[in-house]
Amino acid sequence: MIKNRIKVLRAERDWTQADLADYVGISRQAVISIEKYKYTPSLDLAFSIAKAFDVDINEVFKQEDDMNE
Fold first, then answer.
1. Are 63 and 1 spatial neighbours (Cβ–Cβ below 8 Å)?
2. Which of 9, 29, 36, 52 could form a disulfide bond with 23, CB atoms 3.0-4.6 angstroms apart?
3. What is the pLDDT averaged over residues 32-45?
4. What span, in angstroms and rounded, lies between the C-alpha atoms of 41 and 32?
5. Pfam families, alphabetically (predicted)?
6. Under 8 Å CB-to-CB from 61, ≥6 apart: which residues?
7. Each residue of 7-38: pLDDT tens digit?
8. Beta strands in the chain (DSSP E)
9. Alpha carbon 4 to chain centroid distance?
């Protein structure tokens, strides 16, 4: 599963879901779906989201293993 920190990054910047959607050219519903893990963004969209926050993509998205260690 790909985890994300979009909600946290938005809160740090005082952005709404609509603000982020406008920055990256998607709908607010798409932002909601990504935040709730109902939709995994394409690589292009993931990079666009990271660019909107002005951070490395690894600060926004992280792959989590389903295996217990």
1. yes
2. 52
3. 96
4. 12
5. HTH_3 (PF01381)
6. 2, 3, 4, 5, 46, 50
7. 999 999 999 999 999 999 999 999 999 999 99
8. 2-4, 61-63
9. 5
